[in-house]
Amino acid sequence: MQEDNNTSALEEQLYYIGECKKFLEKKTKEIGRPLYACVHTFGCQMNARDSEKLLGVLKEIGYLETEDEDKSDFVIYNTCTVRENANLKVYGRLGHLKNVKRKNPHMLIAMCGCMMQEPDVVEKIRDSYKFVDIVFGTFNIYAMAKLIYNRITSGSQVIDIWEKTKDIVEELPTERKFPFKSGVNIMYGCNNFCTYCIVPYVRGREISREPKDIIMEIERLVKDGVKEVMLLGQNVDSYGKTLDNPVSFAQLLREIDKIEGLERIRFMTPHPKDIEEETLEVIRDSKKICNHIHFPLQSGSSRLLKLMNRKYTKEHYLEQVEMIRRILPDVSITTDIIVGFPGETEEDFEDTIDVVKKAKFDSAYTFIYSKRTGTPAARMENQVPEDVVKDRFNRLLATVNEVSHEHIRRYEGMDMKVLVEGKDDHEEGFVTGRMTNNILVHFAGDESLIGQIVTVHLDECKGFYYMGRLIED
Ligand code: SAH
Ligand code: SF4
Ligand code: F3S
């Protein structure tokens, strides 16, 4: 039944892609030049992967890809709402887009993603941003072609937001940003309801994909030149628990590990409350699964962790880190930390600093708590004053830098396998690559190396990255 729904939903989209294509061909002839589309992504890896799907459909329709909004005939913002400043960025840029559209009568502007799942945002766009042509959310990403068609034929603003997923439609064309690596969704949504977090509200309940679909997708990607996949889920450790035939994350990893031609496997994000020894053993026994665990702490205070609904204590988190290091002695552990959660005291904050020192993170993403309307934390009293939060944030950053720089240095002098990802932004004649521990290294080399896995000698640690030199194998 599910399959039939998916098949007909897919066929419907293919039909609308065809219709839009005809429209675009006509338009191109009419104005005597090709039409350009720009997909702008905010937020996390999930959004980045969704954007590849959007761009795939836009190219199929006939748009040429550009990164320059000012010369685009179709601009889509794939938005994030995890923190307030993510929203502010979007509104800021929309103002500019309005002016671009004034000069280009063929231009269409679309907005989708997590921010669009918030009713007050959609209301604001409907009322105050009438020049936005198409609005849709996280659950109907795959239906963009139909919405473009509706916009073209109706001539008026199209808004289509769903409360949840009806179908998962995966087989539409996608256009990868990197030919050699790709994100792969293994599950959608989140059931954890951490009290500060908007994600469960905008991404819905957890749904795992069937292992065979995931494996088929990865096999196709490998045939298409992909060497590294990043398995994506908000809490990968709960993968597969609700499938008709339940499968654990460890089992899934084992199956993916067998895929021939695939060279590297990453995943994001495990949850400290759920990570299992078996998963770590699969990583230890695999040559492909990368030596890196992103392990979000959020706070080091057991009292705050409880208020955050994270379901682990400071001690438990540290025990889990110990278990990880026991099974994977050389692993790189990174984390996310929030400062200024409601009611955070100096003592709570010191617990966070203590965990940073004890866990020895290779790096940490640090965030100032952002009040998200609709989440339980937004209604909590004792929101921490801004100056106190700023001061703590700076102290945390200083500690993270100190600890990480000291710890990351341990690889100095080693020869490491590196997947070359692109030209170095800062130095001509240099390229940048990623080790399996996720740390970046810059070294002299030319563009022909991009997409290859090479051996690099790590000459010098520069804080969060290395300078190295290519070793001939
Ligand atoms: N599923 C992942 C996180 C996804 S959101 C996990 O459970 O770890 C990415 C990060 O954004 C979170 O780890 C958290 O540190 C941060 N974050 C989420 N909501 C936030 C908020 N309201 N204010 C500040 N940071 C937040
Ligand atoms: Fe948000 Fe928590 Fe779910 Fe992560 S696990 S997405 S922080 S609710
Ligand atoms: Fe990701 Fe932001 Fe949505 S972090 S899931 S894009 S709210």
From TrEMBL:
Annotated Radical SAM core domain residues: 176-406
Enzyme Commission identifier(s): 2.8.4.3
GO molecular function: 4 iron, 4 sulfur cluster binding; metal ion binding; tRNA-2-methylthio-N(6)-dimethylallyladenosine(37) synthase activity
Main localization category: cytoplasm
Subcellular location: Cytoplasm
Alphabetic keyword roster: 4Fe-4S, Cytoplasm, Iron, Iron-sulfur, Metal-binding, S-adenosyl-L-methionine, Transferase, tRNA processing
CDD domains: Radical_SAM
Entry protein name: tRNA-2-methylthio-N(6)-dimethylallyladenosine synthase
MTTase N-terminal domain: residues covered: 35-153
Subunit-level organization: Monomer.
Keyword Kinase: no
Family statement drawn from the similarity comment of this UniProt entry: Belongs to the methylthiotransferase family. MiaB subfamily.
Catalysed reactions, semicolon-separated: N(6)-dimethylallyladenosine(37) in tRNA + (sulfur carrier)-SH + AH2 + 2 S-adenosyl-L-methionine = 2-methylsulfanyl-N(6)-dimethylallyladenosine(37) in tRNA + (sulfur carrier)-H + 5'-deoxyadenosine + L-methionine + A + S-adenosyl-L-homocysteine + 2 H(+)
GO cellular component, one term: cytosol
Function noted in UniProt: Catalyzes the methylthiolation of N6-(dimethylallyl)adenosine (i(6)A), leading to the formation of 2-methylthio-N6-(dimethylallyl)adenosine (ms(2)i(6)A) at position 37 in tRNAs that read codons beginning with uridine.
Stored Pfam families: Radical_SAM (PF04055), TRAM (PF01938), UPF0004 (PF00919)
GN (gene name): miaB
Gene3D superfamilies recorded: Methylthiotransferase, N-terminal domain (3.40.50.12160), tm_1862 like domain (3.80.30.20)
